[in-house]
Here is the input.
Amino acid sequence: MLLNLPPQVLIILAFCLIFALTFHEFGHVYIAHLCGDDTAKEAGRMSLNPIVHLDLLGSIMVLIAGFGYARPVPVNPNNFRFRNADFYIASAGPLMNLLLGIIASFIYGILAQQSIIILAGVPLLFLLKLFVIINFNLFLFNLIPLGPLDGNSVFPQFLPLNLKKRYQRWNIRYGAYVLAGLVLLSIIIPNFNAFSWIYKVSMTMINGLI
Here is the structure.
């Protein structure tokens, strides 16, 4: 739980989280623009200004659990110029976090060869590793194919057409409730966390890069 970290680490990490979520949403908006839909751009969302992207509850979730979300990007499928544009747009956010995590991992590898750098009384390598974990967590969490998460537009593209339609109908009716239920159960049931696999996979990814 990230709130257990020292105050100075939380302050620096908050900026890292804002950075990660902002680039995540910017990725969605920019790819939507490339696919012909400027709905989000006209709403002022094609920006690296975090204020236009952040969601209060989603940001608090990131601090508490290490994963979360920002404000959904509005899209109008009628403007899409390409087939499967929804897949490309949905994939852009998680892939942006994956890219940030990989870049930070390489920076970590370079700095690990140098003398220890201290930032606000905390080793920079420690903060970099947390930044990588956050981005990989966001990458994995947002690919869960439930409710409004990006995965609900990514996962169906790999299904046969009949299963894709059935899944999409099911997710529209029940996906958000299942996701909320998993979050609630993870909070109220001791020693149960439906999302613990996210951290484990993130650490496996990190160990392969650092």
Notes: The two ends are 22 Å apart (CA to CA). The chain has one domain: 2-209.
